[in-house]
Amino acid sequence: MNNQYLVVTGQNVLLPGSDQPQPATITVNIDTGKITDIQTVYAERSPGGDATFIDAGEKFVLPGLVDAHVHLNEPGRTDWEGFWTGTRAAVAGGITTVVDMPLNSIPPTTTLQNLEIKRQTAQGQCWADVGFWGGVIPGNQASCAFETAGLKPLVAAGVKGFKCFLIESGVEEFPCVSEHDLHAHMQELQDQSTVLLFHAELEGDSCSVKNHEEHDPTAYQTFLSSRPQELEANAISLITVLQEKYSSLRCHIVHLSASSALPIIRAARSRGLNLTVETCFHYLCLSADDIPDGRPEFKCCPPIRSESNRDALWEALIDGTIDCVVSDHSPCVAELKKFEEGNIMTAWGGINSLGFGLSLLWTEGQKRGISLRQIIRWTSEETAKHAGLSSSKGQLSVGYDGDLIIWDPAAEFKVSKELFHFKNKFSAYEGMVLNGVVQQTILRGRVAYDRAQNGFDGLTPIGKLL
């Protein structure tokens, strides 16, 4: 595009404050990447002049999605994923912004130096805009000896918040933290404009991860019973206790799967605690009742649970107890999934899904009376807010980034390897029939993906580091 403006018009544009798509015409200044004008009319022809014109017709125009929980794994584990492949998968699914987790890259994003290594590696590779979470591990809080050590320099450098584990992460370079560790970290962060994210599973005297060596390791039920809901409830109970002491620091539960923890969350909110919660596409769209044995592609931690548990998560999402929905795209190489032996107990835990979330929620949500407005709130508005991006991302408004997607809600497709733009071509969703197809993805006024042009023909990565 050599013109200064992009004009996108359509009969079904989802604007903030409106529950239903409506006719609208959006103008984006390509130089600044910002939306400069929105008219609530459908323009049947190009305004001409220095504008590139896209007529979406009856297709829907939506804000670009913000996926605030993605593992891109670069540098260090680039056979698992990378910035190039991961962000291509994102824009193919209408995701214009991803926020990269501090693990499973080597090094993890736990120091200012490591953040700079990650940023340098990402340069020129990103098809979507990319932000970064920092990591909290034992000993990386501030010390008097080193001014550049600790977490505050990472906040100043732009990380969107910090993630920690209350149970072993699965990679040695990112150990879990104890309650004792957390006091030092939360003390350092409580006066900062940031958030502390928790992988909320916690072993205790009454509950631990069970090896179940005497049971069939290929049976999904063996794995499910090894990670009981009590692990999540224990962790969230501890987090709420800590919040009473460090009340100014927002805490966030990543990938909630246990419905038994919902009363603890609701009670914490009723006491005024600043607690937010996400769940994932796989907990809303898959059920343990339907997972075959010997299929490690369905393994993730915490696990996909029962149908009744899934229903309770949907109810909590609808009533606002759960704030947002993310992918937790956590890939690995096929060898680590143990496909040949089907050993779920020893396989790497993680679901490959980047780019399919909008179709998944739309397909499942239609069965439950969910509106497109709700889906966009959960996957764009609230995720942008969670990642500190709500002044520029997550809605089609004047002054916001010109991130939008043209989407066909009626188009149907079968999930297959040919559609996987992420690096390792397997997924728990393979074979599912879904509704809703992204036709084009626009990032700050420029085309980042075009299905009519084989996705990426003639395009180059234009993503920024946030």
Structural write-up:
This protein has helices spanning 83-92, 112-122, 152-156, 179-189, 220-226, 229-245, 262-270, 281-285, 307-319, 357-367, 372-386, and strands spanning 5-13, 22-29, 34-39, 51-55, 60-63, 65-70, 95-100, 129-132, 134-135, 162-165, 195-199, 250-253, 275-280, 324-326, 404-414, 433-443, 446-450. The protein is α/β, with parallel strands linked by helices and 466 residues long. The strands form three sheets. Strands 1, 2, 3, 4, 5, 15, 16 and 17 form an eight-stranded mixed β-sheet that branches. It has a six-stranded parallel β-sheet with strand order 9-10-11-12-13-14. The chain has a three-stranded parallel β-sheet with strand order 6-7-8. Strand 6 (65-70), helix 1 (83-92) and strand 7 form a beta-alpha-beta unit. The model has no long low-confidence stretch (mean pLDDT 95).
SSE ordering: EEEEEEHEHEEHEHEHHEHEHHEHHEEE
End-to-end gap: 23 Å
Structural class call reads: alpha/beta
Which stretches are low in confidence, meaning pLDDT under 50 for 5 or more residues running?
none
Rg, Å, rounded = 22 Å
Average of the residue pLDDT scores? 95
Tell me the overall shape: globular
Output the number of helix runs.
Answer: 11
Largest sheet: 8 strands, mixed
DSSP helix fraction: 10-25%
Instruction: Tell me what portion of residues adopts beta-strand conformation.
Output: 15-25%
Number of strands: 17
